Amino acid sequence: MNNNVDPSPFSYLTAEPAADALHRLEMAVQRAGEGLTRWQAGCLEQVSGVPLAGAEITLLLLIGSGRRSKSIKELARSTNRVDIPNIQYSLRKLASAGLTRKQGAGRSGVTYSLTDEGCQLAEKLDSLRARLLTQVLDGRSELAGRLRGAADVLGELVELYGAAAHQVDGPGKD
Fold this sequence. Notes:
The protein has 174 residues and is mainly α. It is 64% helix and 5% strand. It has helices spanning 17-47, 54-64, 72-79, 84-96, 116-137, 142-168, and strands spanning 100-103, 111-114. Strands 1-2 form a two-stranded antiparallel sheet. Strand 1 (100-103) and strand 2 (111-114) form a beta hairpin. The N and C termini lie far apart (48 Å).
């Protein structure tokens, strides 16, 4: 499948190359995010019948990474989300599916970890992902450096959006 998209419909009509490049990147990130969500859902269907959305799959994999419990703050920071009630909803959904458990009490003492079933599902997802992506990436060793560079640029973009959001939400806002 050819995922190349004609960039012209996604470009601003501007003489400013940086604005055009940023808009094209934003659209590429949007498409990549949607592709990642479909990819995760497809992998989940292969290994489990548990109906989870992309946000829940991401949280499941994050909680499983590093083999230690995570707080909502850590999960929010890792995903760059501020919608704590929605994260809590996703965590309840994971718990009701028997995949996570909640430990502790109070605002700062609550953490989430995977149950044995959650660990097994996360391991199956990781294994499937590694197997399929290894096949796709085989023979494309130059791509690793480009992916690291893309991740660095996206990290800078997160900072740029954070600074811009600060200006929008700043003291001059009525």
